[in-house]
Design goal:
Structural class: alpha+beta
Number of domains: 3
Strand content: 25-35%
Shape: globular
Number of strands: 24
Largest sheet: 15 strands, mixed
Length: 443
């Protein structure tokens, strides 16, 4: 009797195990796992170089101090930086127009009277851009531009020290108020030290406004760099949207394009790339401050500040702006190699866009050789200018710069100091034959 029940229990258990097995099999066959959707990781485009703020690119390039006896000055950025740091702490207010179209004689009086310092910018600075660097307390800030700041630390009788903003091209002059304590501190910190700077001289026969140059010889380095170039493909990835390699007319030049119609081309002969977006061509003028801010942002977007570039100037009517290469505090010029960033803006479908962009592809990373050179004195440079077959009144600037050349083997680029003069916005070299030569110094 007991064995009978045991057999029945086994049969029931076996039946249950069969059902359980079928259930598990069905569950495995029909099970659909659920997974969290993993979003693809965003591809972060690595900028070519570090971004820069406005005050690193919009820079003065010279400061002069006028006293009753002499004029001294400096073009060293370390000294200029200290002065800018002081100016940035001032509360500048009550900016008002005092001359709409001052004559050259009036501009000279404002700039070069004694007890004044003059800060030189290479191009016009819109007040809103200056406000982003300094502390202008006024609510309404004019859109006007200036290229000289005059710090009057001692005022004539019955007047107060003041700050002047002068546009030497248009003759427009603005005056602003700064707390008297700021001028006193400026005099104590910088005017006394200015006696240690180089003496500057001018020649009345040159320029419609006085052009001051260092009186003595100029010591600067002659520098060789290995030719390091950023690849054209790297620029294409930064400037174009999903760039594709196009077939150039000569079957050798690299060209890239994208679906928008933009084209980027390498220019191996002058070590540059050129970008153009034909749809953005326009004849509309630009607001000067917008042009400068937008251009700074554009270059920052792709990390285009590969070396030390300073704002050089603009043509707001044509929406054009330029940034010049500097090394050792001097501008670089060349007749064969690109030495600046040139940007032209336009409009496409109602949006501001870059119409064209020209820039160098080389980057100054590997210094190969450096030797000190002694340039002719500023006095000799002024005498050389007077020998030129040109309208001396049309000359607007004279200063040392660097001449950039390339070795025959295309392995080195050389920066050699030389004297330059500017006429109608174009720079030309004062040859050593005119200035009396240059000497190699100690290594």
């Amino acid at each position: 009797m007991g064995l009978k029940y045991v057999e029945q229990i086994k049969s029931i258990a076996l039946f249950l195990l069969i059902l359980l097995s079928l259930a598990l099999t069905f569950t495995i066959w029909t099970f659909t796992p659920t997974h969290e959707t993993i979003a693809p990781s965003a591809i972060v485009e690595e900028p070519i170089a570090e971004i820069k703020n406005t005050e690193e690119v919009v820079r003065p390039v010279k400061v002069l101090f006028h006293s009753e006896e002499t004029v001294t000055g400096t073009d060293e950025q370390s000294s200029i930086e200290a002065i800018l740091d002081a100016v940035q702490l001032w509360e500048i207010r009550d900016i008002r127009l005092v001359q709409e179209e001052a004559t050259p004689d009036a501009v000279e009086s404002y700039m070069h009277s004694s007890e004044r310092a003059v800060i030189y910018y290479p191009g016009p600075i819109p007040f809103p851009v200056f406000d982003s660097i300094t502390n202008i307390a006024d609510v309404a800030i004019p859109e006007s531009s200036f290229n000289r700041i005059v710090i009057e630390w001692e005022a004539p009788a019955n007047d107060q020290p003041a700050l002047y903003f002068i546009n030497t091209v248009s003759g427009r002059i603005y005056k602003a108020t700064v707390p008297p304590a700021a001028f006193k501190q400026f005099e104590e910190e910088f005017v006394t030290k200015a006696a240690e700077y180089e003496t500057y001289i001018t020649d009345e026969a040159i320029g419609s406004l006085p052009i001051y140059v260092q009186e003595g010889e100029v010591e600067k380095s002659r520098v060789n760099y290995l030719l390091d170039e950023i690849s054209t493909a790297r620029f294409a990835e930064s400037l174009l949207d999903s760039p594709g390699l196009a077939l150039s007319a000569d079957f050798m030049t690299q060209e890239y394009t994208d679906d928008s119609g933009a084209l980027m081309r390498e220019n191996s002969n002058n070590k540059s790339i050129s970008y153009v977006q034909p749809k953005a061509e326009t004849s509309d003028p630009a607001i000067p401050s917008d042009l400068l801010f937008d251009s700074l942002g554009y270059v920052n977007e792709h990390g285009g500040w590969t070396d030390q570039y300073f704002y050089e100037g603009m043509n707001s009517l044509k929406q054009q702006i330029k940034y010049q290469l500097y090394i050792e505090d001097l501008p670089v010029f060349s007749t064969s190699i690109a030495t600046g960033l040139e940007i032209t803006w336009g409009v496409d479908a109602g949006e501001e866009q870059v119409y064209s962009y020209l820039r160098p592809t080389y980057q100054l990373e590997s210094e190969a050789e450096k030797r000190m050179m002694v340039l002719a004195s500023g006095k000799d440079a002024l005498n050389a200018v007077k020998q030129l077959d040109t309208d001396l009144s049309a000359i607007t600037d004279i200063k040392p710069g660097y001449k950039l050349t390339e070795s025959e083997e295309n392995k080195l680029i050389t920066f050699e100091p030389a004297w330059y003069f500017e006429t109608n916005g174009a720079w030309a070299e004062l040859t050593s034959e005119l200035t009396g030569g240059r000497k190699l110094g100690l290594e």
